[in-house]
Each structure stands twice: as C-alpha cells, then as structure tokens.
C-alpha cells in the first residue's frame, strides 16, 4: 500500500511516478533491511524534462513569496538532487550549484563558491533521512551564508525538522515488512536489491 499523507498540489504526482515507473512494483529489499512491494527511483521521472518542469513549476505556488524573492542560489546534493535543483533554479531564475560527496563528506567543488551573506535554498528530489541536506546546510553556514528553506519533490521522511521552512509537493508512506513476516517472501516472489550494483 502507498498512502498519501499530504499532497500540496492538484497534480497527481503519484500517477506521474507510476506512469514513468519511478515507483516500481515487485519485491524489494530496502537499505534499511525491510522488504517492500514498491521502490521509488525518482530518476525515472526526472529523465523527462517536461514532466520535471511541470512539477518544479508548482514549487513557487507553495513557497513563501518573501523567501522566493530573497533567494540568490539553489544548491543540491549530487547526484540525485541535481536535475530537480537545476530545473527549479531555471523556473525561479536563480543560480544553481551542487555539493558532492568526497571521502564520505559533502563538499563544494568545481570552482563553485558560497559567499558570505548569500541566501540559498537546498533542493533535493526525495528526502528520506535528510542527512545530505543537513550537511549542505552546514557547509552554507560555515561560509557565512543563510539557508532560507529546504525544498523537495517527495518527502519520504518520518518526521524531519530542519529548523527552517521545508516545502515539498507530496508526502507518502509505503508499507514495509520485516523479512521474517514478509507476505511477498511467503509468496516466493524473487527479491530485488535496488540499491546495489547488481540491479543498478
Ligand atoms: Zn520479502
């Protein structure tokens, strides 16, 4: 079961995710160890610029106008957040940069700079634990910049608090099963490990 917790726009995002197979149906082993009937791979939707643009165009509708007007830059975590962040920056007519993980740590590379007093929003396609986003907020603050808000297409977190406004288009829950009591295991369905190199 997929349960919509909150949907902030009239667009049927869940249908878009299913139509583009960004929500895959099968029998999946999640990074957390749980089993699930569904797996979300947002890149499958983001491969279509027209659909992505349609979704990012909803963001200004749900954001504070004050924040929208004051922001200089969109920053995203590589690789997942880049397409979403770039399209959002295009829509908002802002600059876009990204941070990438090197030796387990998020870093700004490629000559990108964050200036003192610069106002940013952090954009990510899907937020689950929010770890990368929090690291990026830290990098911005170390540089004396101000992070005004966090934005994502999908919120898959249980209860996350960045201590700044967090805007997202949809929040939904997907049933997950303990491997010991997984109904799909009982049915004998083949198990996929979507996070691993084997199936990527
Ligand atoms: Zn199972």
Topology:
Layout: E1 2-7, H1 13-19, E2 23-29, E3 35-40, H2 43-46, H3 49-56, H4 59-62, H5 65-70, E4 73-77, H6 80-92, E5 95-102, E6 105-108, E7 119-127, H7 131-142, E8 146-155, E9 166-174, E10 176-177, H8 183-186
Parallel strand pairs: 4-5, 4-7, 7-8, 8-9
Antiparallel strand pairs: 1-9, 2-3, 3-10, 5-6
Helix pairs in contact: 3-6
Write up what this structure looks like.
The chain has about 200 residues and is of the alpha/beta class. It has a single domain, classed as 3-Layer(aba) Sandwich (Rossmann fold), CATH 3.40.50.2020. It has eight helices and ten strands. The strands form two sheets. It has a seven-stranded mixed beta sheet with strand order 1-9-8-7-4-5-6. A three-stranded antiparallel beta sheet has the order 2-3-10. Helix 7 (about 130-140) links the parallel strand 7 (about 120-125) and strand 8. Helix 3 crosses helix 6 (about 80-90). The protein is globular and about 55 Å long. Bound molecules: zinc ion. The site of zinc ion (ZN) has 8 residues, from helix 8.
Compose a concise summary of this entry:
By secondary structure, the protein is of the alpha/beta class. It has helices at residues 13-19, 43-46, 49-56, 59-62, 65-70, 80-92, 131-142, 183-186, and strands at residues 2-7, 23-29, 35-40, 73-77, 95-102, 105-108, 119-127, 146-155, 166-174, 176-177. The chain contains eight helices and ten strands.
